[in-house]
Specification:
Layout (H helix, E strand, L loop, with lengths): L1 H19 L8 H42 L6 H30 L5 E4 L14 E3 L4 E3 L13 E2 L14 E3 L9 E12 L8 E8 L17 E8 L6 E7 L2 E9 L6 E11 L4 E6 L4 E6 L9 E6 L5 E14 L7
Helix pairs in contact: 1-2, 1-3, 2-3
Keywords: Signal
């Protein structure tokens, strides 16, 4: 039991230190993603340990105290120490919980992650594209050849007031607002079954103003108020490349792979948008390499996350939204 006490104190101490660290701030999205995963692992352990300790303490106290009442005149020094030991553990559990509550109320400078419950908005879905039942996966085909993800396309009603008429994809269900910082993780898969030709677009992930996101089939070449990460075939080299696009400019082109039939590729991406300082970063989650680093984003109006899929005649493409979270200096994880 003494060992569990030590583990509990160390775990809570580690958890508190993680809480005090600044996550997803500045340009250090790499550390933010790592710390987020550590926190996800630590929090359930702390909660379970505290609850288990508390329950065992109560059960043991009932047993020991009941025996103590029955044997009032025969209580030994060992029994008294035994009871005191469990009372101290119970007190430590309560103290730890009180410390966390106090930190939540009195330390607004610490930053933690809060769930940002975004999905892909079915009401905005372009009828040329398809959405899974959980509204997390976007497909370029109603019946994809390749089994690229666990989700499958379903028939969503279309034609509403929010339906995208020109953009080949879907809008996120929540806007990005000043001064929030939002991070979200996206997996993108594609499988080529006919050779790509020309400048075939495969997929796009970006942000844009409401007035600019439905002017064409993708936002990457809009003159203003859009910023996107695009994967497409380069018509000069014949290779699939990624690029960072805004204001009709393409930067940071990176080779991705072949554009021939039989090619399959999977990308794990992290996107961080800081609506306070007007920056957006795209990283490769598997290698933690920075792919795009947009600056001077106009944040005077809300921006919308956008997801686009293309090349349905030659490729199966699916873009899946995995996790999204909001950073707030006054948000704390509840124990």
């Amino acid at each position: 039991m003494c060992f569990l006490q030590v583990v509990l104190v160390l775990a809570v101490s580690t958890f508190s230190k993680l809480q005090a660290q600044s996550l997803c701030q500045g340009v250090d999205l790499k550390n933010a993603i790592i710390e987020q995963k550590v926190m996800e692992n630590i929090r359930p352990f702390i909660v379970e340990l505290m609850q288990t300790q508390h329950q065992h303490t109560m059960e043991e106290c009932v047993r020991v105290c009941d025996r103590k009442v029955k044997q009032t005149h025969n209580a030994t020094k060992h029994q008294q120490e035994f009871t005191l030991k469990y009372e101290n553990i119970s007190k430590r559990v309560d103290e730890n919980a009180a410390i966390v509550r106090e930190m939540k109320q009195t330390n607004p400078d610490n930053i933690l992650l809060e769930d940002f419950p975004m999905h892909m908005s079915e009401s905005s879905l372009n009828p040329r594209t398809f959405l899974s039942l959980d509204r997390k996966s976007l497909f370029n085909s109603r019946n994809p050849w390749a089994n690229l993800t666990d989700g499958v396309p379903v028939d969503w009603p279309s034609g509403g007031n929010n339906t995208l008429e020109n953009y080949y994809g879907v809008r996120g269900s929540l806007p990005l607002k000043h001064p929030d910082t939002v991070c979200f993780e996206v997996d993108a898969y594609y499988s080529i079954y006919f050779n790509l030709t020309g400048r075939n677009l495969l997929f796009e992930i970006g942000i844009g103003r409401d007035s600019a996101i439905d002017n064409s089939h993708y936002i990457g070449w809009e003159p203003d108020f859009t910023w996107s990460f695009v994967v497409s075939r380069d018509d000069v080299t014949g290779r699939v490349k990624s690029a960072c696009q805004s204001q009709q400019k393409s930067n940071d082109e990176t080779d991705v792979g072949n554009s021939t039939a039989g090619t399959q590729h999977h990308m794990e991406l992290g996107i961080r948008v800081n609506m306070a300082d007007g920056t957006m970063m795209v990283i490769d989650r598997s290698s933690l390499a920075i792919i795009c680093n947009f600056t001077n984003i106009d944040v005077t109006k809300n921006l919308w996350p956008m997801f686009g899929v293309y090349a349905k005649s030659s490729t199966d493409v699916v873009v899946t939204l995995r996790h999204s979270f909001l950073l707030s200096s006054r948000t704390w994880i509840n124990l």
